[in-house]
Amino acid sequence: MEELIRRARQSIIDADEEEAMNLIREARARQLDVMELLRLGFAAGNNEVGSLFEAGQISLPELIFSSEVMRSVLYYIEENISDKSLKVKGKVLIATVSGDVHEIGKGMVVSTMKSLGIDVIDIGREVPVEEIIEKAEEHGVTIIATSALLTSTLKEQRNLENALREKGLRSKYITMVGGAPCSARWAKRIGADLYTEDAVEAAQKALEILNGKAR
User: Fold this and answer.
1) 65-98 confidence digits (pLDDT tens)
2) Structural domain boundaries, residue 63
3) For a surface tag, which of 15, 138, 145, 175 has the fewest beta carbons within 10 Å of its beta carbon?
């Protein structure tokens, strides 16, 4: 498994889609944990690509190529590994906050949640607080999850908490926050219910909440 994880990480860095797909199939054939491969291999490679780009060590086209391979990995896992027979009561609404265009991390959370049978409403990126609340009300969700990948957009997660309180809706929802600049301390500071570090933890926590507090 360690070797597969190493190769999965490298496949994203190298933007090698054929290798990535072969690794998933190999893991399945050997009855290894594909979600662990996603978390420790592919996701780690995706994070490293982002760091390399920020450090000026790779170009924008290289970043895009790697991101496309990561999208293909997520799509394959969602379509071929998710157990469609599973169905969890309750729904999760997820969005990247206003001012933030990042979607890869959110996409990983969505795919992982769906693989556990969770009904996820993904409303995209750069979503204003008012729209997040409007869609949560429209779809009758249990959890509102927001992603902020930029320090400058963290404030939108706090704005969401404030808006929910002002509208008298705060107790109606479980709020979950994530993203590179987030932390458990940040979640506590703004009054969010939960911070999760990665996609697997986010999906597992959401499953626990929905199984214990389904609406």
Assistant:
1) 998 898 899 888 878 876 655 667 789 999 999 9
2) 2-80
3) 138
